[in-house]
Amino acid sequence: MKNDHKFKKILAEWPTLKRLLKITFKNHEWMIFVSFLAIIISTLASVIGSLFLQKLFDNYITPLVKSANPNFFPLFKAVLYMGLIYLLGILAVTLYTQLMAILGQKVQLKLRKQMFSKMQTLPISYFDNHNYGDIMSRYTNDIDTLLQMITQSLPQLVNVIFNLTFVIVGMLYLSWQLTIISLVIFAISIIFIRFLTIKSSFYFNKRQQQLGRTNAYIEETLTGQKVVQLFSHEEETKQSFFKLNDKLRIYFGKANGYAMMLFPFMGNLGNVLYVLVALIGGYLSIKHYVPLTLGTIAAFLQLSKSFSQPIAQFSQQLNSVVMALAGGKRIFNLLDQKSEVDEGKITLTDQNGNYSWQKDSNSTLLLGKVEFDHVNFGYENDKEILHDINFKVNPGDKVALVGETGAGKSTIINLLTRFYEINDGQIKIDGINTKNISKESLRKLFGMVLQQTNLFTGSILDNIKYGDLSVSDQQLNNAIKLANLDIFVNQLKDGYNTIIKGEGNGLSQGQRQLISIARVAVVNPPIVILDEATSNIDTRTERQVQQAMDNLMQNRTSFVIAHRLSTIFNADLILVVYNGRIIEQGNHQQLIDKHGKYFNLYNNSLVLD
């Protein structure tokens, strides 16, 4: 049956289920225990209430019918007791439902916190290799399926198990003969459902295969219609299609026929069992084959109806568990990812804008000298995309990286900040291998302004202060002035308190870059990395952005992915990147005099991306 397949899936994901249960139970044992107890009470109340029907009919209703002077008080008292039993069951259901809802929310909150905390430790390569929508789905859809499993599926499965157990015990208590008859009828029904399921599944598969063949034939005929007509093959083509279509019609009919029998039968299995037990029980009682009272038959019918309902629920809840385990596996896949490795011991200290290297008790003033020494790199170890990168940058120099799209300029920049680890060679800052510098300190060295500017929900002021929330008013004003922000922010109704939403979609690309420049200026980094805009920016704003970038680069070691001729002309060092190699380096005049790649790019106006 389908449930066999579901059980196999659950068993295959046993490590995931075990881990989920461990997270669910940890620090919530009392909630689990009380919920478990409440489930038992609710199922017992339901079964006892059904059994009470026997007493109600045989001890109260039947004598009253036969009595000439009936006394209804005992009946009302019995009905009250029965009502209290059902009320206890309702209260127990309410209790475990509420507790499991609270537990589900707690587990959901815990997992989301763990996932978000883990995300902060993952290397950039993880986000490059995974679709953002897929990552977001783990925070939303996958977490929601787990919540449904904890709040609904697991309690329902436990409830079904106890319910079936207590119902069968209750049925045996009332009449072991009717119980056997009911189980036989139920088994025959299950066999029939199994038969319908197999047949329906078989013909649905056949239908889909035939539909594929028919569609393929139609497509083939449409694309080759000229050839069909050229060779006068219209009649043969038509007959072939008719044969395919007839087979499709047959499979459609059989698949739908079995399905139309299956679903109504499954939906009415309880009613079928109810009617058959009533007929057989009544017949056996009338013929005196089995000593059955009216109360016994009424109570048994109530239990038999309760017997079939949990079976359908069981199948539905297994579906939810299978889905939740798939979601749980994806969540744990994220949580089990290796965090970014950081073995660096050397740190960076900042005293009023004066940076120093700190190792043990030794302190050395930061200069800002950068060196790539025979660096090789590939996103995959066996596929290098940067080959033997060598260059030296003196403190305060401006470096322009030039080359066509995909040459490797951005990759070189990403290696500076150790967003990716190199395969061979060394990257040094002031003679210190960057692998020996803690990543937190290393990244404090750099301020980055890229074309794709990321702003966060909040005010413009919040975004400027993002890198240093404790920045002084004087530092803040200096950063705003450096970035020429007043020019456009003062035109906004709420000025610097203007709320940015959706990554600043209400602002132009140039305006977002100006805010990004101010954000970098606030933290006053010794080295800056800039990616000049090439499009989607008006001339006036472009001048403001360029001026702000020039201001930011003053007295700092600077790396620029250059697109503007003026930036390239003024660079102290131009690195010409081609197919993952630096094929030329020098200043503008030196490279022009070489008559090499740069000379050709310049003359063909290809320096600009």
From TrEMBL:
Membrane topology: Multi-pass membrane protein
UniProt cross-references to InterPro entries, sorted A to Z: AAA+_ATPase, ABC1_TM_dom, ABC1_TM_sf, ABC_transporter-like_ATP-bd, ABC_transporter-like_CS, P-loop_NTPase, Type_1_exporter
Family annotation (SUPFAM superfamilies): ABC transporter transmembrane region, P-loop containing nucleoside triphosphate hydrolases
Chain segments annotated as transmembrane: 30-53, 79-103, 157-174, 180-197, 257-280
Membrane as UniProt keyword: yes
Principal subcellular localization: membrane
GO molecular function, one term: ATP hydrolysis activity
Keywords: ATP-binding, Membrane, Nucleotide-binding, Transmembrane, Transmembrane helix, Transport
Gene3D superfamilies: ABC transporter type 1, transmembrane domain, P-loop containing nucleotide triphosphate hydrolases
Annotated ABC transmembrane type-1 domain residues: 33-323
Protein name from the UniProt record: ABC transporter ATP-binding protein
